[in-house]
Amino acid sequence: MRVTLDTNQLVRALMRPPELATFVMAWASRRITVVCSPLLLAEYQRILDTPGIAELIYPELRRIFLSQLAAEMEMINPSHIPPVCRDPDDDKVIATAVFGLVDYLVTADEDLRAQPVVELLGHEGIQLTTIDELMLLL
Question: For the chain, how big is the Rg over CA atoms in Å?
Fold first, then answer.
């Protein structure tokens, strides 16, 4: 199973160690492949460094994610990032999912759940899910 994580769901997973453990075990056992792009990884790092967010995550989990788990991601470079979403910052997430040939885009972002985006992703065979729903699939 190939997945791209929107930043909001990555933060949610890091804030909940028991659920994160399930996710990491599935990742380590190669039941899932996390697909990312340099732009999306830069966003992860920027958001995880935000003081209000950093306070909500155990420092050790943040360190492990940035130093070890990020290295395990399959990195792709979208050939281009077309404007699709109402929020242009979300276009890199969509492009990563589409060019990374993922099965699931893990998000709770309403802009990514807008009908035009859902139709585009559906046409590419990509389903939207949340981190909670993904945990049930695992």
Answer: 14
CB 105 within 8 A of CB 134: no
Whole-angstrom distance, CA of residue 113 vs CA of residue 90: 11
pTM (2 d.p.): 0.91
Which domains does the chain possess? 2-137 (3.40.50.1010)
What pLDDT digit, counting tens, does each position of 54-106 carry?
999 988 888 888 887 788 899 999 988 888 889 989 999 999 999 999 999 99
- CA distances to 8, 22, 112, 120, 137 from 40, rounded to whole Å, are 12, 23, 15, 19, 24
